[in-house]
Design goal:
Elements (H helix, E strand, L loop, with lengths): L7 E4 L1 H16 L5 H29 L6 H21 L8 H7 L2 H10 L7 E4 L2 H4 L6 H7 L11 E5 L3 H12 L5 E3 L14 H7 L7 E4 L8 H12 L7 E4 L12 H9 L7 H5 L14 H4 L7 E2 L6 H4 L15 E6 L2 E7 L4 H15 L6 E5 L2 E5 L5 E2 L7 H15 L10 H16 L1 H4 L7 H8 L4 E2 L10 E3 L5 E3 L15 E2 H11 L4 H15 L3 H22 L6 H16 L4
Helix pairs in contact: 1-2, 1-5, 2-3, 3-5, 3-8, 7-8, 16-20, 16-21, 17-22, 20-22, 22-23
Length: 585
C-alpha cells in the first residue's frame, strides 16, 4: 500500500539567514518562559535545516560527505543557537555561569554574518523533519539524553548527526557533552541497507584520536535502523570497538522488523539513553514548566491534571458507542485542559515555522465561523477551545451539504498553497493503482487505465493547489448544543506524514462526496455551489474521486495494525470503490 510520503522545500539561503537575524532580535525582546524558549527552538530548527540543505547540496555535487568551510560556517550558526536553547532549558546548570552566557550571546548573529559572506547557492532543498512536524520529538530530549550517557562518553566524544533531523539534534548533543561541533552524514542506498560515503579528509578528522568515543544521533530507528547501523558498521571497519559507540535515538524501542541480526545484537548491547515527551513536559522533574502551565497567563491555572486524548482516546468523550475508528499511529499528541475559563484542547501542532503557519490558519477558519477558537501557540502546542457538549455526526442532516459547501469554498478562496506542496497527479494515479490492486485485485484497478499521461497533463493545467482539509469524515463534524455544525481537526492534514499534501479543492469535494455518501443529486448540488463560489473543474474531480477512495483503502489498511475497528472502515471504502467506480450495485 502507498500511503506515506516525505515533503521537501526549496528556498534561497539568503532569505533564511535574513529571517534568522530578524527572529533572533524578536526572541531577545521576549521575557523568559515558554514563548521565548519556543521562539529560540524555532530559530534553531530553521538554522539546522539550512545547514542540512547546504551539506546535502555539496554531498550531491561531489558524491560523498566532506568537511568544507561552507559546512563549518553553517554548523557554527547551528551551534550558536544550540547553546541558546540549552541555556534557556538549563538556566541554572552547574558550570554554566551568567557571564559565560552573556559573553556568548552575540555568537549567533556573528556566525550568521560569517555564513552570509560565502558565495551561497540560489536555492537549497531542505527535508521536512518528521519528528518535529508530527511525532512530538523535542530537541531538548537530546540534551537530556546526552547528559545521561555513560562516563566513558563524557570526554568530548565525536558526535555524528545523520541528516536530515540529526543535523540539529547532534548539535545539542555536542553542547551537552561539551564536544566539538558535530559531523553530519547522509547514509544512502536501499532503505534497509544504507551506507555512508565519506571523503578521505573527513575520515582523517573523524579518526584522528585513536581512543575517541563516538555518539551517533538521529530520530527513529524505523523499520530497519539501517542508517544508525551503517555508520556503526563503518566505524567498526575502521577499528572502533562496539564499547566506544553510543546511540541517541528518538525512542527506546528495538530496531524494526527489517533490521539485520548483527545490527540487532549491537543495538541491544549499546548505550542509547532516551528521554520521552512525558519525562520532559509532564513529570514535574524538568527544568521547564509542565505543559498545563504553558498557557496559564491566558487560560488560568489548571483545575485538574491533563487528560491525555492521544491515540484515539478522544473517542471516549465524543463517542460512547465506539463506532468511530482511529489510526493511533497517525494521531498527534493531544490533551484536555480544564481551567476556570472552561475546557481547552492542547494539540501538538509542530515545532518550527509549520506550527506558526497552522496558528494563522486556525485564526482564519475560526473568524469565518467554521472551527473552534484558537488561543495561542506555545512551543509546538496549539490551545483551542474544547467544544463541550458537541456530538459527531452519525447521519446526513439536511444542512450538511450547504455547510460543507461554504467551508470548502472558504478554503478554496482563502488558503492558497505553493505549486509543489502536494503529490503530482501521476503520483496519485500510481498510488491508486497500487492500493486498489493490492486490496481488490488487478481487475478492480483496470478502470484507472483510462487516465493516460496525455489526459493527466491536460488536468495539470486546471489544478489550483490550496491547503485542503484532507479529513472530511463524518465524525470530524461536530453538532453543537445550539445546532451549529463545526469542523474539528481542520488545520494540518494537508501537511500530514502522507503523500497527499495540498491538492486542488476538488480533492476535498471528492472527500465530501465519499464521506457523506452523497446521492447523485446531493453531489451535483455540492459541486454547483463550489463552482459558483470558487471554481471547480469537473474533469479533475472525476480523476480525484477514485484516487481519494484508493488512498483511504491504504490508510485504513495500515490503521488495522493498531485499531481492529479500522477493518470495517477499509471494507466501507472497498464498497465505495465498487459502487462509484466499477458501477456495481
Amino acid at each position: 500500500m502507498l500511503v506515506y510520503g516525505d515533503r521537501d522545500s526549496c528556498e534561497d539561503p539568503r532569505r533564511i539567514i535574513a529571517r534568522l537575524k530578524q527572529g533572533l532580535a524578536g526572541a531577545d525582546r521576549l521575557a523568559p518562559g515558554a514563548e521565548r524558549h519556543g521562539a529560540l527552538v524555532t530559530l534553531f530548527i530553521e538554522a539546522a535545516e539550512l545547514a542540512q540543505g547546504l551539506a546535502d547540496l555539496e554531498f550531491h555535487s561531489i558524491g560523498e560527505d566532506d568537511c568544507t568551510p561552507l559546512q563549518q560556517a553553517a554548523m557554527a550558526v547551528v551551534m550558536a543557537l544550540a547553546h541558546r536553547v540549552a541555556w534557556s532549558w538549563w538556566p541554572r546548570r552547574p558550570g554554566w555561569t551568567g557571564e559565560q552566557r552573556e559573553a556568548a550571546a552575540p555568537l549567533a548573529p556573528h556566525s550568521l554574518e560569517s555564513l552570509a559572506a560565502f558565495p551561497l547557492p540560489d536555492l537549497i532543498r531542505m527535508r521536512r523533519a518528521e519528528g518535529y512536524a508530527f511525532y512530538s520529538l523535542y530537541p531538548e530530549a537530546y540534551l537530556e539524553a546526552a547528559a545521561r550517557l555513560p562516563p566513558r562518553f563524557a570526554d568530548a566524544p565525536v558526535v555524528i548527526g545523520l541528516r536530515s533531523i540529526g543535523t540539529g539534534l547532534a548539535a545539542l548533543a555536542a553542547v551537552a557533552l561539551k564536544s566539538c561541533p558535530p559531523i553530519t552524514l547522509r547514509p544512502v542506498g536501499h532503505p534497509f541497507r544504507r551506507e555512508p560515503r565519506i571523503s578521505n579528509r573527513l575520515r582523517a578528522g573523524m579518526l584522528a584520536d585513536p581512543k575517541a568515543t563516538y555518539v551517533i544521533v538521529d530520530e527513529g530507528p524505523g523499520l530497519s535502523g539501517s542508517s544508525f547501523g551503517a555508520v556503526a558498521d563503518w566505524l567498526d571497519s575502521q577499528g572502533v570497538g562496539a564499547d566506544r559507540i553510543a546511540f541517541l535515538p528518538g525512542h527506546g524501542g528495538d530496531l524494526g522488523p527489517q533490521a539485520s541480526e548483527p545490527h540487532r545484537r549491537r543495538w541491544a548491547a549499546a548505550a542509547r539513553p532516551v528521554i520521552d515527551f512525558d519525562s520532559l513536559f509532564r513529570s514535574g522533574d524538568s527544568p521547564f514548566p509542565p505543559l498545563e502551565r504553558w498557557f496559564e497567563d491566558l487560560l488560568g491555572p489548571a483545575l485538574a491534571p491533563l487528560e491525555d486524548l492521544s491515540g484515539g482516546a478522544w473517542r471516549r468523550l465524543h463517542d460512547s458507542t465506539g463506532a468511530f475508528p482511529a489510526n493511533p499511529q497517525q494521531e498527534r499528541r493531544k490533551f484536555l485542559l480544564r481551567t476556570g475559563n472552561g475546557p481547552w484542547l492542547l494539540k501538538f501542532a509542530g515545532l518550527g515555522r509549520a506550527g506558526e503557519e497552522l496558528l494563522e490558519r486556525a485564526r482564519a477558519l475560526h473568524a469565518a465561523g467554521f472551527t473552534p477558537e484558537p488561543v495561542d501557540l506555545r512551543h509546538g502546542f496549539l490551545a483551542e477551545r474544547w467544544l463541550e457538549g458537541a456530538r459527531p455526526l452519525t447521519d446526513m442532516p439536511a444542512d450538511a451539504v450547504d455547510r460543507l459547501a461554504g467551508y470548502l469554498a472558504f478554503r478554496a478562496r482563502h488558503l492558497p498553497a505553493p505549486p509543489d506542496s502536494g503529490a503530482a497527479l501521476p503520483d496519485l494515479l500510481t498510488m491508486a493503482r497500487t492500493n486498489v490492486a493490492e486490496a481488490l485485485g488487478n481487475g478492480a484497478a483496470a478502470d484507472l487505465d483510462r487516465w493516460t499521461p496525455d489526459k493527466l497533463a491536460g488536468l495539470e493545467t486546471a489544478l489550483r493547489r490550496v491547503v485542503t482539509d484532507n479529513r472530511l469524515h463524518r465524525w470530524e463534524w461536530l453538532r453543537l448544543p445550539d445546532g451549529c455544525l463545526m469542523k474539528a481537526d481542520a488545520l494540518d492534514h494537508a501537511a500530514a506524514h502522507d503523500l497527499i499534501g495540498c491538492q486542488d479543492i476538488a480533492w476535498d469535494v471528492a472527500g465530501g462526496i465519499v464521506e457523506f455518501d452523497l446521492s447523485d443529486a446531493q453531489a451535483r448540488a455540492l459541486c454547483g455551489a463550489i463552482d459558483a463560489a470558487a471554481g471547480l473543474d469537473r474533469r479533475l474531480l472525476e480523476f480525484l474521486l477514485p484516487c481519494y477512495i484508493a488512498f483511504q483503502i491504504g490508510y485504513w489498511t495500515f490503521a488495522m495494525g493498531s485499531d481492529p475497528s479500522a477493518a470495517a472502515e477499509r471494507r466501507r471504502y472497498e464498497k465505495q470503490w465498487h459502487r462509484r467506480i466499477a458501477g456495481e450495485a
